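Re: the 314-residue chain
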Amino acid sequence: MKKLCFVLAVIMLTLSLVGCGGDEVTTTTDDGDDTTNQVKKVFYVEKMTELDGVVSVVKNEQESIDGCLAYDLVLDLDGVYLDAQIVMPQDYRYKDYSTVLYFPEIGLNYYNLRYLYASNGVIVVRLGYRSGESVEQKKDFCGKDYEDVKSFFEICKQCDFLTRAGITVFGSSEGSVRALKLAVDYPNDIMGCAVIDVISDIESFMNAREESIRQLFEYQIGGSIEDMPEEYQKRSAIYFADKIDIPVMILAYKDHPLVPMEQATKLRDAIISGGGECEYQVLDEINSDFGVSALYAMNSWYVQIKVDNGFINE
């Protein structure tokens, strides 16, 4: 427990003071003239309902314990309704806490969000996945549902309490592709990207798994890899890794029964061959997503980000 608290305390220290995003945006009027307007900012979580795309923000009283606050959000992102959660230290309005935008593999675990993040001085934000219950809500592996991610990230950029000390993105399994694509699209707003159980090449991942996994991808993407090779490449990180311009940490669990380590090494090699910055570690202890061992392994990576950006001395 002491080791965990120390590690996350260092993470918090090394992430503080990093700016994120600009304060102005240029818009075009009907007569073609460009005008510069201030981006709307909100300074505490309840005010997020003033932002386009946020339907409701409700404090989760049951999970707001141990010095942490938990909020459940309902979003309307271009007609797609999604849930999101924010868990943060209770005094977030008065201190500069770094933010982790977290895309876990599947479900929500408030205990981990509190214990591993908010209780250690990190704001953690989680965006849910499409439900698949209707045509509009059909899951689309890093296709249309990635547009949801981008829309939500634009909302996060308008929240002063989320951006004042920097945003890092974490992603596991399917969420790893979400995180990596954000790293490409927002290099000036995200200071680092960490992935675990990464799916970097859908074709080799399908070949290594059972037929049901291939069928799942075909359903979510809308066709087979033989019929839609470009779509599979767009959603495979090894094909856009050369465009990642921020530090990346890749963690791989040794002998994972579901995610071959080949996926992690393929991503590492693609980033390095493209001239990017990448740190790679293999973990012996298989854990769930970003557990204690994963966070501990990332500590030196966070420190190096701060050194490279001039925020602490080496």
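Residues 13-36 have pLDDT under 50 and may be disordered.
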